[in-house]
Each structure stands twice: as structure tokens, then as C-alpha cells.
Amino acid sequence: xxxxxxxxxxxxxxxxxxxxxxxxxxxxxxxxxxxxxxxxxxxxxxxxxxxxxxxxxxxxxxxxxxxxxxxxxxxxxxxxxxxxxxxxxxxxxxxxxxxxxxxxxxxxxxxxxxxxxxxxxxxxxxxxxxxxxxxxxxxxxxxxxxxxxxxxxxxxxxxxxxxxxxxxxxxxxxxxxxxxxxxxxxxxxxxxxxxxxxxxxxxxxxxxxxxxxxxxxxxxxxxxxxxxxxxxxxxxxxxxxxxxxxxxxxxxxxxxxxxxxxxxxxxxxxxxxxxxx
Length: 277
Description:
Blueprint: E1 3-6, H1 9-13, E2 30-34, H2 41-53, E3 58-62, H3 65-74, E4 79-81, E5 91-94, H4 105-115, E6 120-123, E7 138-140, H5 144-154, H6 163-174, E8 177-180, E9 185-188, E10 193-197, H7 209-223, H8 229-248, H9 261-276
Parallel strand pairs: 1-10, 2-3, 2-5, 3-4, 5-6, 6-7, 7-8
Antiparallel strand pairs: 8-9, 9-10
């Protein structure tokens, strides 16, 4: 039996706080990203930017040098490189801007090592095929087409039989949280609870915003250890949508205007300030 709950601004506020005097970069959360590729370096740049803007205290990037250079050109605060100076992390973000068909055996082994660890993992895009069998706490973040492929692979009900029911079935099957992106984003936990987030705007349907969402989820999860991962993901999705509304100028009923993914990342601090207020 699926329990569907509407997620609110008040629900989101529980997962954000201003840093206290005794906080440091580690207590605010360490996010590591193994994302992007030489073909799609922008995905790594967007995810890292979003993790910083969503309040992470420390962000590491692990990837090809060309991608690391792009990340550092945008965000020099990041510790970046083929091994990022070590891999201490509260949360990993993997898969954004990668193609599983182009993934090397060495990369697959590295990702499986992350997925078998104890740190929470946000599994996006090109790493979704590795989700089944994951031992770490995790969230998968498919859009509709990726969700259909995942459903087919796992031989569960299709999305046509109800998005909430399908998301809950996938979550139960893989033993992790499912965040199904859309105008109504659904976050399902393995126990059958589905949170519905409707904080976004149609202007959000543009390339790269999913990469921003992955970075946001990493930062919110890192700042809230021990909390329900489905609720953490719902809070991150709400914040992401609210930042898009701020960036597109659609607050107070205005029609708004086009935005690009980096605009959403840039608006995250304002969205957090609004939530804290």
C-alpha cells in the first residue's frame, strides 16, 4: 500500500539551519563528486557549483584532469584531481554527465567500491545501471526515460500504471530511495511512502538542471546525517525547484523568463535564505 504525501516549504525548513559558531567545514558536510567526462565536463562543473551553493562545507571532485581543470576554473575552492587528495566524504554524487556505454572496467570498479561503502550515494544518469545491489544508503535520480529503462530492467510495473506506485515498487525492489523527476517530482522510500514535490517551474526543463539537482542533494544529505534519506531528498528537490522559481522570476504569479542551469545554482543561496527566514 503506497502512502502519498505532499511535501511543503515547512517540511523543507527542518533540514536547513544557519551554521553555529563551533561549526567548521567538516561539520557542515563533505561532498565528493565523481561526475562528468571529457565529453560532458559541464555536468561536473554544475554539480560542484550546486554542492557549494547549497551549503556544503567541503567539496571534492574526482575525475579526469580535463574535467578537474574545468571545475577548478569555476570553483577554485574545490579539491580536485584524479584522486582529489583522498576520498573522505559524507556523501558521494556519481554518474552525472557520464555514459555507461563508454565506462571503463577501472571506472566501474571504482564506482562499485563507492556503492559498497558506508557513505550515502546520489546515483544519477550514467551510473543508474549500477544501483541494484548497492550496499550504501542511496538515492537514484532518474527522469522519465531513465525510469522506464530501470523499470524494464527490473521487470516491475511500468510508469503508465501510476507514477507513485511505480516509484514505490522500484524503491522496494532496489532497497533505496527513488527520486523520479518531473513537473511533480516523486520521492519514494522502500517502505512505500511517496513524497510529492511541486515547487518548480516549467522554465526548469532545460539541459543541466538535473546535474544541479544532484549536487544539491549531495549537500543537503551531507548536512543531515542520520535523517530519513527520502525526506532529505524531498527537501533538496523542493529547494532546487524554489531556486528555479527565483531565477526565472515566477514568484507572485509572474510568467517568468528563460533560465539556464547555472542560474538555478546561483539562486540557491537566496532560496536557502528564504527558507531560513
